[in-house]
Structures are given as structure tokens and as C-alpha cells.
Design goal:
The chain is α/β, with parallel strands linked by helices. It is 29% helix and 18% strand. Bound molecules: S-adenosylmethionine.
């Protein structure tokens, strides 16, 4: 099945951007996913093609208009479209690996990239847009956030990753950060590889990796261990 990504943005030329390269780019060429980036400005109706206006109540910046954005959403996602409609937003629920996994088994996604101060609240309610954040900081626009979300999702589509296993042993998959990795040379700048990794004892290696993952998680992200 082809995963269909529709992106509403004022900068369609930013897509597929980095996702036109490497694994995601090959997957795009194979047709594992499609990337339709539409300019929100195409759905403006005045001769200046305005998409934004000043905020009611005053204040800095401009706000994306509900009527223009709703037309754009309805165009790319008609009523029978089952794909989730996500609005990239610092106010949104933080994106997690679990959510990315759920997206990767869906038929696709509709992503709205905000700009300016944000989006008129009424279109969020009326079109049931789910707000998704990629972290506690403010970007200039939703495009980079959309690329992050798509990158994380596309690599999980069937057949995209070379080694299917690498998806399930990674950080966050077991509620832990990943264990450290080592490769050749065995000795580098006086540092050697932990003996267990060259022992050939797979059970011991597995136990060592688990222990390392737990230690790292405890030190760096104790929040991930809460409730375990
Ligand atoms: N005034 C908004 C606020 O304080 O919440 C910030 C608007 S920001 C300058 C413009 C757009 O960038 C947002 O509408 C959103 O689409 C996107 N954006 C910014 N930070 C983001 C984040 N952490 N995650 C997802 N999208 C983000």
C-alpha cells in the first residue's frame, strides 16, 4: 500500500526536501509513499492571494485565516478521507515513537504547516485538526516539523529500512534509550571495545546491552522509566 502524505504549506518547494534523498528518497522513487505539497495561497480568493490577517483583540503578528485554510484542507482531504489531519504546533501533544508507529500503518497523513503567530482556532475545531509538537521550542514554521514527522514515519513503512530489525531495537521502542554501539577498529586512540562484544556469547551480549540501555535511560531520561 502506498502511504499518501499531503502537506499544506506556504512553502511547497520545501518538500520533499531532505526526504527526496537516502532511504526516504528511494522509497519515494519506488512509490512506497507519495508527497503532495499544496500551497495554501492557492485557496485564497482575493486578488492579493491573502492567507493571513491581524489578530482579533490585537497583539503582534498575523494569523492564518480559517476560511482559506479550511478550503485547502477540504480540497486535499474530502469527507471520505480517513487519513489523520495533523497541525504542526508548539501547543500540540509531543510527537512520540508510538504515535509514529501508528501513523506508519495508516494509509497516510494530511499535515498542515503553520506560519506567523499561528492558525485561527475555529478551523482547528471545525476540521478536527490534531495539534502535534516536535519539542518545547518555537520554530519559524511548521515545515521543518512536518519533515521530522514524515522522516520518522517513512523509515517505518514496510520495506523502507534495509534491516527490518533495526526498527524494533531502537531508542524508545522498549521504553529505553538504545545501548552504545562500536565498530572497527577494535582499538582507537587508546580506547578499546568492551570485551563482551567480541566474546561471541550472544546471551551475555544481550544482557550487557540491556544493562547499558537501562543505565543510559536512568541517567539521561529518567522520565521514560516512570511507571515501569
Ligand atoms: N505563536 C505560536 C506559539 O507561541 O505557540 C508560535 C508560532 S510559530 C512562529 C509558527 C508555526 O511554526 C506554528 O504555527 C507551527 O506550525 C510551527 N511550529 C513552531 N514550533 C513548532 C514545534 N515545536 N512543533 C511543531 N510545529 C511548530
Amino acid at each position: 500500500m502506498t502511504f499518501r502524505a499531503s502537506i499544506l504549506t506556504l512553502y511547497p518547494q520545501m518538500f520533499p526536501g531532505p526526504l527526496g534523498h537516502a532511504l526516504a528518497g528511494q522509497a519515494l522513487e519506488r512509490g512506497d509513499w507519495t508527497c503532495e505539497a499544496r500551497n495554501i495561497r492557492d485557496f485564497a480568493t482575493d486578488r492579493h492571494r491573502s492567507v493571513d490577517d491581524t489578530p482579533y483583540g490585537g497583539g503582534a503578528g498575523m494569523v492564518l485565516r480559517a476560511d482559506v485554510l479550511a478550503r485547502a484542507v477540504d480540497h486535499v482531504s474530502p469527507a471520505d478521507d480517513a487519513r489523520p489531519k495533523l497541525l504542526m504546533s508548539p501547543r500540540g501533544k509531543p510527537l512520540t515513537q508510538e504515535q509514529v508507529r501508528q501513523l506508519a500503518v495508516a494509509e497516510g497523513v494530511v499535515i498542515i504547516c503553520g506560519r506567523f503567530e499561528g492558525v485561527d482556532e475555529r478551523v482547528i475545531e471545525a476540521r478536527n485538526l490534531q495539534e502535534v509538537s516536535i519539542g518545547d521550542y518555537v520554530l519559524a514554521g511548521g515545515e521543518v516539523a512536518a519533515l521530522v514527522l514524515l522522516d520518522a514515519t517513512i523509515r517505518l513503512l514496510p520495506g523502507v529500512m534495509g534491516n527490518e530489525q533495526s526498527g524494533s531495537y531502537e531508542s524508545f521502542e522498549a521504553g529505553l534509550l538504545e545501548h552504545p554501539h562500536y565498530t572497527r577498529p577494535a582499538e582507537w586512540e587508546g580506547r578499546s571495545v568492551p570485551d563482551v562484544l567480541t566474546s561471541g556469547d550472544h546471551a551475555k551480549i544481550e544482557a550487557w546491552r540491556r544493562e547499558q540501555a537501562e543505565k543510559l535511560t536512568h541517567n539521561r531520561r529518567p522520565d521514560l522509566l516512570e511507571g515501569k
